[in-house]
Amino acid sequence: MSRQDELRKEILEKVKEFYRAGEEKEFIAGKTLIPYAGRIYNEDEMVNLVDSALDFWLTTGRFAAEFEERYAQFLGVKCALLTNSGSSANLLAVSALTSPLLGANRLKPGEEVITTACGFPTTLNPILQNGLKPVFVDVELGTYNIDLDQMEKAIGPKTRAIFVAHTLGNIAGLERIQAVCKKHHLWFIEDNCDALGGTYKNKLTGSFGDVATGSFYASHHMTMGEGGVVVTSHPALKRALASFRDWGRDCWCGPGHDDSCKQRFNQQHGDLPLGYDHKYVFSHIGYNLKLTDMQPAVGLAQLKKLPSFVKARQKNFKAIYEALKPFEDVLLLPRWEKDANPSWFGFPIFVKEEASFSRDEMVKFLESKRIMTRMMFGGNLIKQPAYLDIDRRVFGILENTDRVMNRLFWIGVYPGLTDAKLDHVIQTLTEFLKG
């Protein structure tokens, strides 16, 4: 063992000691803030983070390679590519579908992608950023996912893809979506950022789309602080995704490697001179959307804990659901597909029109008791300032989307909800509803 190895071992032992020396803050009901989400970690993540920092390999390296392999194995897909955020993953997913590598199946400017206006803008933004036209379809109340009947009716001669997210972890009708895409020869992009660990017919979400995305932001099911992933089992898509992520280059060598194809200086590309260095050939108009190796170092420790995180989310969701069942006269409780076992991101609470109180009154009461709440992301996105003038097609009138915007909020079910915190949440909800 070298002196550096000895020091590394000593440093990592000190990191464990540092973590264990921390004091857990006392929870005081009504005074301690209960967030809607948060990071859950211990010395495992801290040791991995410091270990990667000691390598001082600041771009993607050994931890990223191991994470991509293990994540792909976890989902049961052929390829996982890390990127710097879930938003970037969505951008890569749509951009890759415009690649010439797909031939006649590539998406072209002006063609349509079906999605919803009830959600987070980073599902919509890549459609616009690639010169495509979004087609907005309403959602179902209770699931808050895309209305499957309207989805199929909305398909037109220019429709080429369906891009949907699993709202708050509630799994969309994947079997029907896949069948519709197959029937109409559409690409299916699955935004799995809020649903990691959920299953549909015992198969993990994030493995159903032609391409699927994930997020490792601090509030998600597992975290790297920042970070995202895009997965596929389609060979041409894998190459396109990597190219768009890595400046648009044609070369597929990993960081620090040269001439993996053994053809670096003897190929013809575009109008470049014969034999132009393949490392500087660009076949897509791409980006630099890589991440550091320190992030997947944290992610590897988190991935091992993901099953326990999912169980905790499901347990917390069930406890809140059972507590709210007596109040179904004023609240619409969430529902889900019979073949789905969601990994919940949050608990949606829809205040019915006949209730004697408003959504805003309930939100203010919970916030006064130090319980964080959140709206359903952007509400109706086409009413947001950024999207008022976009080129779009709206199928129907998005009635349920507007109702969600006006009457729904959600609270957290994340694994950091201790029994004491969960009891306070339930007692506070009950106090308001009985009052």
CATH class of the largest domain: Alpha Beta
Main sheet? 8 strands, mixed
How many β-strand stretches?
15
Strand content: 5-15%
CATH architecture of the largest domain, please?
3-Layer(aba) Sandwich
Shape: flat
Tally of discrete structural domains = 2
Low-confidence stretches: none
How many DSSP helices?
12
Based on helices, strands and strand pairing, what is the structural class?
A: alpha/beta
Indicate the multimeric state. Answer: single chain
Helix content: 25-40%
Average pLDDT over all residues: 96
Q: Biggest sheet, strands in spatial order?
A: 1-9-8-5-4-2-3-14
- Would you give the CATH topology of the largest domain? Aspartate Aminotransferase, domain 2
Rg from alpha-carbon coordinates: 23 Å
Notes on the protein architecture:
The protein is an alpha/beta fold and 435 residues long. It folds into two domains: 250 residues, Aspartate Aminotransferase, domain 2, CATH 3.40.640.10; 129 residues, Alpha-Beta Complex (Aspartate Aminotransferase, domain 1), CATH 3.90.1150.10. Helix content is 37%, strand content 14%. It is built from twelve helices and 15 strands. Strands 1-9-8-5-4-2-3-14 form an eight-stranded mixed beta sheet, sandwiched between helices. Strands 10-12-15-13 form a four-stranded antiparallel beta sheet. It has a three-stranded antiparallel beta sheet with strand order 7-6-11, with no helix packed on it. Helix 5 links the parallel strand 2 and strand 3. It is flat and about 80 Å long. The N and C termini lie far apart (68 Å). 43% of the residues are buried.
